[in-house]
Amino acid sequence: MSDRPHVTLEDVARTAEVSLATASRALNGTTRVRDDLRDRVLAAAAELAYTPNAHAQALAGASRRTVGVICHDISDPYFAAVTRGVMRVADRNGLLVMLAGTFADPDRELAYVSTLRAQRASAIVLTGSAFEDRAWERAMAAELDPYRRGGGRVAVVTRHRSLKADTVAPENRAGARAMAEAMHRLGHRRFAVVAGPARLTTVADRVAGFRDGLAGLGVELSERDVFEGSFDRDGGFRAAEELLDAGHKATCVLTASDVMAVGVVAALRTAGVSVPDDVSVTGFDDVPLVRDLTPPLTTVALPLERLGEEAMELALDTSAGGGGARGRVRRLAGEVLLRESTAKPRRRRRR
After folding, report:
1. Of the residues 46, 64, 108, 314, which has the maximum number of CB atoms within 10 A of its CB?
2. Rounded to 5 degrees, what angle do the CA atoms 302, 307, 308 make?
C-alpha cells in the first residue's frame, strides 16, 4: 500500500487558491468556469495527483435512485431529526440518500450542490438555514436553476428568499414571538437574547420574532441585549459568559436554539447562577435531549421529523405545479412548551 496521503478536493482548491465550489465546477464541467481559474484548478489537480472519489463516480451511474441531503452540522440533534424524516420518505420510495455536512460554510454548500449535479442525483434537499448574503444567493441560484431545467428536483427547509424552490417553512418568527409573549405573561420584563450568527436566515427570523413579541408589549430589545455566538452548544456557553461579564440584568434569556440553550444553562451554572431561580432560560426546536436536562428546557417545539418528511415529499411530487418558477410552500407552526427552566421572576440579591 502507498503511504501517500489521500488528496481531497479541498487540497486542490487551496493549492489553486479558489473556492471549493469553483474547484468542483472546474473539475466536473457542469458549469462554465473562467479559463484562468479552470487552468489553475487543473494544474493543481495534476500537481497533487488528485483522483476523484471512485465510489461517488459509481453512484452517479445509479443517479436516478439517489437524492442528496445537505445540512450544516450532522452532529446537531436538530439536523439529525430533520434528516431522519427525509430518510424515512426516501426509504419508502427505494431511494439512496447521500448526506453532506457543510459546517455552515457557504462555499462548501455550493461545492456539494455542484457535486450532486455532476452525479446527476434525482433530487437535492437543503435542510440548513440560508445565508443573508446576496452573492451566495446568486451563486446558489446559478447552480440550482440549470439543475432544475435538466429535470432535477429541489426542496428546502426554512426560508431561502431567492431560490424559488419548494419550501417547508417552520414558523420561526411566529414561534419566537409567541415565546416572548409567554415569558412576558410569566412576569418577565428584562430580557436578553442569545443567538447564532445573524447571517443565517433562521437566526434572523427568530431574533426578529423575539423583537416583535416584546415590542408589541412595550418592551424594547436593543442591540446591547443580543449576544451572538456560533450556532451550537459552545457558542451558547460563550455568549452567556459575555452576558454575565457585561452585568446584564435580564431575568429571562431567550435563546435561538436548544443546543445553544444547553450551553447557556451550563455557563450560568458554572457562574453560580441558578436556573430558573435567578434567571429563566428558553430554547427553540424541542430536540429530544432538552426534555432530560436539569431543569427540563422551556422551548418552542417544532415537528422536526415532519419537516424532513414534507421536504422529501415535495421533492418527489411532480404534481400540482411542482418545480415551478415560484415553488410551493408548506408552513409548519411551532408550539410553546413551558417546562422547569422558566419561572416567575423574583426579587433577589444579585452577585
Report:
1. 314
2. 135
One domain for residues 287 and 216: yes
Query: In this structure, what DSSP letter does residue 131 have?
Result: B
Domain around 181: 172-302
Within 10 angstroms of residue 295's Cβ, the number of other Cβ atoms is 17
d(CA 305, CA 85): 4
pLDDT digits over 287-312, tens only?
Answer: 999 999 999 999 999 999 999 999 99
Note if the bond before 295 is cis, omega within 30 degrees.
yes
Chain centroid to CA 267: 23
Looking at the fold, whether 252 and 230 belong to one and the same domain comes out as yes
Report pLDDT digits (tens) over 102-123: 988 888 999 999 888 888 888 9
**pLDDT in the model for residue 156:** 93
**CATH number of the domain that residue 243 is part of:** 3.40.50.2300
With a CB cutoff of 8 Å and minimum separation 6, the contacts of 252 are: 183, 186, 188, 190, 191, 192, 279, 280, 281, 282, 342, 345
Q: Do residues 224 and 230 touch, judged by C-beta distance below 8 A?
A: no
Q: Which residues contact 94 (CB under 8 A, 6 or more apart)?
A: 65
d(CA 191, CA 124): 39
Alpha helices (H) along the chain: 9-16, 20-28, 35-48, 54-61, 77-92, 106-118, 134-149, 172-185, 201-215, 233-245, 258-270, 304-316
How far apart CA 337 and CA 107 sit, in angstroms, is 36
Strands 191-195 and 280-282, by their bridges, are: unpaired
The reported pTM is 0.81
**Do 69 and 46 share a structural domain?**
no
